[in-house]
Fold this sequence. Notes:
disordered C terminus, Chitinase A, domain 3, mainly alpha, single chain, 3-stranded antiparallel β-sheet
Amino acid sequence: xxxxxxxxxxxxxxxxxxxxxxxxxxxxxxxxxxxxxxxxxxxxxxxxxxxxxxxxxxxxxxxxxxxxxxxxxxxxxxxxxxxxxxxxxxxxxxxxxxxxxxxxxxxxxxxxxxxxxxxxxxxxxxxxxxxxxxxxxxxxxxxxxxxxxxxxxxxxxxxxxxxxxxxxxxxxxxxxxxxxxxxxxxxxxxxxxxxxxxxxxxxxxxxxxxxxxxxxxxxxxxxxxxxxxxxxxxxxxxxxxxxxxxxxxxxxxxxxxxxxxxxxxxxxxxxxxxxxxxxxxxxxxxxxxxxxxxxxxxxxxxxxxxxxxxxxxxxxxxxxxxxxxxxxxxxxxxxxxxxxxxxxxxxxxxxxxxxxxxxxxxxxxxxxxxxxxxxxxxxxxxxxxxxxxxxxxxxxxxxxxxxxxxxxxxxxxxxxxxxxxxxxxxxxxxxxxxxxxxxxxxxxxxxxxxxxxxxxxxxxxxxxxxxxxxxxxxxxxxxxxxxxxxxxxxxxxxxxxxxxxxxxxxxxxxxxxxxxxxxxxxxxxxxxxxxxxxxxxxxxxxxxxxxxxxxxxxxxxxxxxxxxxxxxxxxxxxxxxxxxxxxxxxxxxxxxxxxxxxxxxxxxxxxxxxxxxxxxxxxxxxxxxxxxxxxxxxxxxxxxxxxxxxxxxxxxxxxxxxxxxxxxxxxxxxxxxxxxxxxxxxxxxxxxxxxxxxxxxxxxxxxxxxxxxxxxxxx
Length: 715
């Protein structure tokens, strides 16, 4: 395990420097960080920020109170990365609605577009003090290997359990996809339309060529970036796209006029012109009088008066072509002689003045019969494709409007009336079994990783004879609301608002939030919390870091050792602070030191960068220039400016308590991380699902090493 590596040598306490990502982060269990993001009352206000950024702003120590909480809420920044994003390994994968994908494929350069979640479960209940029943207890009798998804220390996770978990997480969106595909399939059957394998292959080849890739490489891209097997890509993206095209094909007609307009637009004459646009006719008239009296001032007047972005470039716009923009603009432009200024005319809600700079004659393509026919064929295909996009969208909307669909996931009151049925589509139906299997095939491997991790924790709790109660869950949620800055008017944690916020961004339920984020946090905390001790040395280091003297310096950070050596020689030959400042501004690659001409926050002890600290505290007025400090791939040069005095003479009891709590929390999180690493490495995990997945080798099942939680697929 490696500590978090700083991108900067300044501004963090030693605790931050060694604090690893929590075990339930996306890199591990895929769980939400329940670390305290609140400004700590007695330490640097930035000391709780993640260590992957420079922390150059150093605040003053202060005492906690409710007013301060309301004054510096962190809730505004917490949800840039929601907990659902952080549980990607538990609920990972991406969702596609086939017909929607088809429409997007027709209208986008990227044929694969993820569809967002819809119809989120209710988030009003707070339950699940322990994992749901999809995490099995000890198996009474061994299941058939074909029904086993994985074993964890000989305890099984069955395919059915995993399918149910996938259904719970992805059922609504996958069902929408299946419904859309059924609607398309039924429409094709009614019209005797058949999409052949050859057509599918040809479409894939075209897409690959569009991106300059061989077909095999393109399919690999879909696998790596969209987590789609070639079969899934063919079935769930390409087929619906081709089906929609086939259904819409009869609506697409390329007329001779369409082709002629396209030729004129691309190869016909053009007008180079400049433009002034203003918001009122009165102002336009005034400007027009000025430009007509002195045409050579057109550019200056465009900069002065034009509302169009082109005003900054003296009104210059791209050459005006026929049949591509506003008809009135084109008519006026082509009616002007060179150097002629147009009358004021209206385009949309703007008043426009044009000056014609040059008429560009049509392309020589028109005089080359062979080239002309080639371009006609290309343009005819392009026009047809453009029209097909529009027609396909219209067809899809029509099919949706005409379809008789009953989604029973959204109508739980009808599920007893139609047992086992997830949806009715016209005369067809989708069963819950079909839906579960579809969810399993799409998301099984991603969900399994989370279920394995959860079962590892469940087993560890059982071995320790520990149990998680609802009170533990409630306490952790309350702690998270407090840590992330969600408070009521009286200063107490606002749990309801926190739960609403933490789930709304990704349309998840409170139940899943508790299962994926809260429960693992509580489980790991129970295992290690009695082993945490805050030592006198911990306290002393924290006090020195937050309240002790600091070294004021300027810094230069570069990526090249030779450059660093050259800069040090120059700084040594010209030892003034002013010269060092200019060098920093010119050469430093680190934003803060560069923008501030070398000035960075004072270096404190135990900041997490011992090399920088040691060098900084060794500098004096007589010897102000440091040696070259190597941190990772950076080369740092410091110049001494002086020292600060300690902020306090003596730390009182209240501040010591706050510091102790802060240190305890940090050490707890680190211990939780390490404990899960130990449990995971010692667990024997056999993954049978991976071997059964199409496209995977049917060799021996994957072990814990290949089921590493940190290995997620790009989406």
